[in-house]
From TrEMBL:
GO molecular function, one term: ATP hydrolysis activity
GO cellular component, one term: plasma membrane
Species: Candidatus Gallacutalibacter pullicola
Keywords: ATP-binding, Cell membrane, Membrane, Nucleotide-binding, Transmembrane, Transmembrane helix, Transport
ABC transporter domain sequence ranges: 331-567
Lineage: Bacteria, Bacillati, Bacillota, Clostridia, Eubacteriales
Segments crossing the lipid bilayer: 16-40, 52-73, 133-152, 158-178, 245-263, 275-296
One Pfam family from the record: ABC_membrane
Location relative to the cell: Cell membrane
Domain spans labelled ABC transmembrane type-1: 16-298
Full protein name: ABC transporter ATP-binding protein
Length: 579
């Protein structure tokens, strides 16, 4: 809760003003029945018209003030609650940006989306009720009971009986529903996951005619959410019957005993009228408090889920005195062991001892799951090793400022992502200050200029979200050009030319040799033609180095490389290249 409330920041003033206005509103409303009693007793029953006018004007003024105080309190409540939710979303988003890949792995993407939408909205609604209703209702309850005690201590005892009854009923309901709400919000994650997965892969769903299967999967998630919601709301529905029992009990008791007190002369008609007003205020305050408790019960699960994200600290940290310059593109793996879950015993990489000279072009090849992507993720410190060390420029990557290191290690990942905006906007992710000429040169090196020049708006062509209006090969070439604009000391291509034909792939590699000869280039590929011209080729197998040599030597001595070569070249060639 403390983590969440820290995000109030500049809205603390609005919060306290809302509480103050609510208190003044309650004060006005509490005094209204007392003035009404004066009108009846001193005005109407005494046939004193001036007293009726005098108290009537006072009644109107106080009602108007109560209206003003209430409207002002509502405005401040809306401002404070909306401000809190805005700050929460910003804090969550900012903290997510600091996460390492291992941190992000702890929270599913749908789970993070639910936290920033549904959970934050729940907290916003609960906070508004707390500073508005949860302040107003207890004050109204206490003041109403005090006024009842001043009018008739004997009749006030029945209110205590009704209050005890309601507190017990509401307490039992809240204990049970709180557990249900905790389970309910975890089901929101499943629902969002189903929606996100289906929409992001809608082309695959339609291609395999799996709409019915996806509908059933979504229906299961939705049905689970429905059943839990009905169960929780069904229990909360007992609030109203319990409240009505308490109200009717008080009205009947007050009417019976109040009539007897009036006949005996122990109470006036005005006092009995005001007692009815106070009893309704008192019981309605209890009802509002029960609603607040329900909202708080719902929001507590949301508070816990949001606090998990806000409390999460990045696994990777900059050192106290980080190194701010990368000398060159030399890479050294010194007896490296790495696993995605530390201490699990399931290593993604084992005993990696590898030394690459600055400016070398290194090919990396191996079967699926052999550890190719894991290897290059360690170079730019997206993860930290379990044992050993990874050095860039002769310095352990853990000693660098991470931003400096990643600016000098440019990575084109397997999953290429473009963002909505023009082609130039996307290219300048690599270098915000890049000129148009530099962008064009990078596109020429990545062979992206071939298709950009054919587009109606050229480099100002708008890219749809996710790059949906360009092909896979075009997307890959734009991502390569974006990486080249960083002018890195190390360039990593993680299977990033898989959708490009072999002729274009060859042109790109030739451009690398010509344009960035001093940059260390690591090319992960599934086809031999992409790596055979590399200075050396690394063969990985089951997270271990199987061989590290030139294309010619591997063809002579390495069974794995020979098998891949035979299947691709002599078995019919690459998919777009004749044998």
């Amino acid at each position: 809760m403390r983590k969440v409330l820290q995000q109030l920041k500049q809205y603390k003033r609005d919060t306290f003003l809302c509480i103050a206005m609510s208190a003044l509103e309650v004060l006005m409303e509490i005094l209204l029945p007392a003035i009404t009693a004066r009108i009846i007793d001193q005005g109407l029953e005494a046939a004193n018209l001036p007293a009726v006018f005098r108290y009537g004007i006072l009644l109107i003024v106080m009602a108007f003030l109560g209206l003003v105080f209430g409207a002002t309190a509502g405005r401040f409540a809306a401002s404070a609650a909306s401000g809190l939710s805005a700050n929460l979303r910003e804090a969550i988003y900012s903290n997510i940006q600091t996460f390492s890949f291992s941190n992000i792995d702890k929270f599913s993407v749908p789970g993070l989306v639910t936290r920033m939408t549904t959970d934050v909205t729940n907290i916003q609604n609960a906070f508004m009720m707390i500073i508005r209703v949860a302040v107003r209702s207890p004050l109204m309850l206490v003041f109403s009971f005090v006024m009842c005690m001043l009018i008739s201590p004997h009749l006030s005892g029945m209110f205590l009986i009704a209050m005890v009854f309601l507190v017990i009923v509401i307490g039992v309901i809240m204990v049970v529903t709180l557990k249900i709400f905790r389970r309910l919000f975890s089901k929101y994650d499943d629902l969002n996951a189903s929606v996100q997965e289906n929409i992001s892969a809608i082309r695959v769903v339609k291609a395999f005619v799996r709409e019915d299967y996806e509908n059933k999967k979504f229906s299961r998630a939705s049905d689970n959410l429905y059943r839990l919601s009905v169960k929780a709301e069904g229990l909360l529905a007992f609030n109203n019957p319990a409240m009505m029992i308490a109200i009717y009990f008080c009205i009947i008791s007050l009417s019976w005993f109040g009539a007897q007190f009036i006949v005996a002369g122990d109470m006036t008609t005005g006092d009995l009228t005001s007692m009815f007003s106070y009893i309704m205020s008192l019981l309605m305050s209890l009802m509002m408090l029960s609603m607040v408790v329900v909202m708080i019960s719902m929001s507590l699960a949301s508070v816990r889920r949001i606090s998990e994200v806000l409390s999460e600290t990045p696994d990777l940290h900059d050192p106290e005195n980080p190194i701010m310059e990368v000398p060159d593109g030399r890479i050294d793996f010194n007896r490296v062991n790495f696993s995605y879950k530390h201490g699990s015993g399931k290593n993604a990489l084992s005993d990696i001892d590898l030394h690459i000279k600055s400016g070398e072009t290194i090919g990396v090849i191996g079967g699926t799951g052999s550890g190719k992507s894991s290897l290059v993720n360690l170079i730019c410190r997206l993860y930290d090793v379990d044992e050993g060390s990874v050095c860039v420029g002769g310095i352990d990557v853990r000693k660098y400022d991470m931003e400096v290191l990643r600016n000098q290690v440019s990575v084109v990942l397997q999953k290429n992502t473009l963002f909505s905006g023009t082609i130039l906007d996307n290219l300048r992710w690599g270098n915000p200050d890049a000129t148009d000429e530099e962008c064009i040169e990078a596109c020429k090196a990545a062979c992206a200029d071939e298709f950009i020049d054919r587009m109606p708006d050229g480099y100002h062509t708008h890219i749809e979200r996710g790059g949906s209006n360009v092909s896979g090969g075009q997307k890959q070439r734009l991502c390569i050009a974006r990486a080249l604009l960083k002018k890195p000391k190390i360039l990593i291509l993680d299977d990033s030319t898989s959708a490009v034909d072999t002729a274009t792939d060859s042109k790109i590699r030739a451009a690398f040799a010509r344009e960035i000869p001093g940059t260390t280039k690591i090319i992960i590929a599934q086809r031999i033609s992409s790596v055979e011209t590399a200075d050396r080729i690394l063969v990985l197998d089951n997270g271990r180095i199987n061989a590290f040599d030139t294309h010619e030597n591997l063809l002579k001595s390495n069974p794995i490389y020979q098998e891949i070569y035979e299947s691709q070249v002599k078995g019919g060639g690459d998919f777009d290249q004749p044998a």
